[in-house]
Design goal:
With about 280 residues, this protein is of the alpha/beta class. The protein folds into two domains: about 5-75, no CATH class; about 95-280, Rossmann fold (3-Layer(aba) Sandwich), CATH 3.40.50.150. The chain is built from ten helices and eleven strands. The protein has helices at about 5-15, 20-35, 70-75, 95-105, 125-130, 180-190, 220-225, 240, 255, 265; strands spanning about 45, 55, 75, 115-120, 135-140, 150, 165-170, 190-195, 200-205, 250, 275-280. Strands 6-5-4-7-8-11-10 form a seven-stranded mixed sheet. The longest helix has 19 residues, at about 20-35. The chain is globular. The model has no long low-confidence stretch (mean pLDDT about 90).
Length: about 280
């Protein structure tokens, strides 16, 4: 039985159960799938962050079946809900993809000696950056959960201009109240020639970015924007929007930069472009 069949049978089994029963069974099932996914014998997938072979990557929640219908119809690009989590190390597909993109461009090795600001730091990407010994590495979040992460709003960065060589905001700008203000702050704080990784989910169908203050309840945001705490869904104008405060596009496509990388084997979404931007010299 393949992984998709296991997932479908699991969903059918949960029907009719109480919320507590569903949560308990889902947690047990998730752990069982993690154990099964870790079996390296005859494994065809590989995680680039822990360098381990795995049977498959785990889905996010219910996988693509859990994506709101409107988001599917709008051909929304973001994380791959069917190949999301590595069963061996727990890293997510957007960490793997970002690392592969930046490695191919030779930017990972350049972290040594740089000044880096990392918003909503992903744990695995964070360790990789630390291992490259940047001269300055600041992890920041609007609601930090550990002392090593500074409390900071991306809309009001408390640092001087021209401070950072690299700023990472991986799936952050869809959460902030004023993303234009955030982009102005990113531009101000980057050194000339500095780079910003600004991945966001976006729709391949929407001509323009969709946001409306009337979409204010968690359920409305889930169905309109894809997640309960998202405040917008970027459209086909995403690159122009992210360049609106002076940054220059260095956007690349998977087929262009990683043509030899099988997205299924490495658990990434080949439709997700590298949204990389640079402050002009």
């Amino acid at each position: 039985m393949d992984f998709e069949s296991l997932q479908k049978n699991h969903e059918d089994y949960l029907k009719g159960m109480t919320l507590f029963q569903r949560s308990f069974i889902s947690a047990v099932m998730h752990q069982m799938l993690r154990m099964l996914g870790r079996v390296s014998f005859w494994a065809s997938c590989r995680c680039v962050l822990c360098n381990k072979k795995v049977q498959f990557f785990l889905p996010y929640q219910g996988g693509s079946r859990s994506v709101p219908p409107l988001l599917r119809e709008l051909r929304t690009v973001g994380s791959d809900p069917d190949h999301f989590e590595c069963p061996a190390c727990g890293c997510h597909d957007r960490e793997r993809h970002a690392f592969m993109y930046l490695s191919r461009l030779g930017l990972v090795g350049a972290w040594r000696g740089q000044a880096i600001l990392h918003f909503a730091p992903e744990s695995h990407l964070r360790r990789l950056i630390q291992n490259h010994q940047p001269a300055l590495y600041i992890c920041a979040d609007i609601s930090p959960h550990e002392p090593s992460v500074a409390r900071m709003s991306i809309e009001a960065i408390p640092h001087d201009g021209n401070t950072f060589d690299f700023i990472i905001a991986n799936h952050v700008l869809e959460h902030v109240d004023n993303y234009v203000l955030a982009l102005q702050e990113i531009y101000r704080c980057l050194k000339p020639g500095g780079l910003a990784l600004l991945q966001v989910p976006y729709s391949e169908s929407l001509h323009t970015t969709f946001e409306d203050p009337g979409v204010e309840t968690p359920l409305a945001r889930l169905n309109a924007f894809g997640q309960e705490d998202h405040l917008r869904l970027f459209g086909r104008d995403v690159v122009n929007r992210l360049c609106s405060t002076g940054l220059v596009s260095r956007v690349r496509q998977h087929e262009d930069l990683l043509p030899d990388v099988d997205a299924t084997v490495f658990g990434v979404n080949r439709r997700e472009s590298l949204l990389l931007f640079q402050k002009p010299y």
